[in-house]
Predict the 3D structure of the following.
Amino acid sequence: MYRPSKKDGVGPKERSLWGDLISIGMVFPIAIVLGWYLGQWIGGMLGHPRHGRLIGLAFGVISGFWELFKVARRLEKFDDLNKIDNGSEEDANDGSNE
């Protein structure tokens, strides 16, 4: 089994970002299913389970995309910090050599 050493340059921030990216695969379905059932439950208490399901589903989808947005923003900050730390012109040009 491969275990990265400190020489590989994998720091705790990068590991944390990998964990965030992996969690996105779980956040979407959990948020959608939870929104669906909570909406149905609350809508049932108010006498409108169908409307509650749709509203809960919408909240689940919105919360899933919100989490994706937050992870993308953290990844962008990490990428910007790496570009500054490396200081290379190739990173600024997205690797296009002319």
Q: What stands out?
A: The mean pLDDT is 80. Residues 9 and 45 are 54 Å apart (CA to CA). The radius of gyration is 20 Å. The longest helix spans residues 49-86.
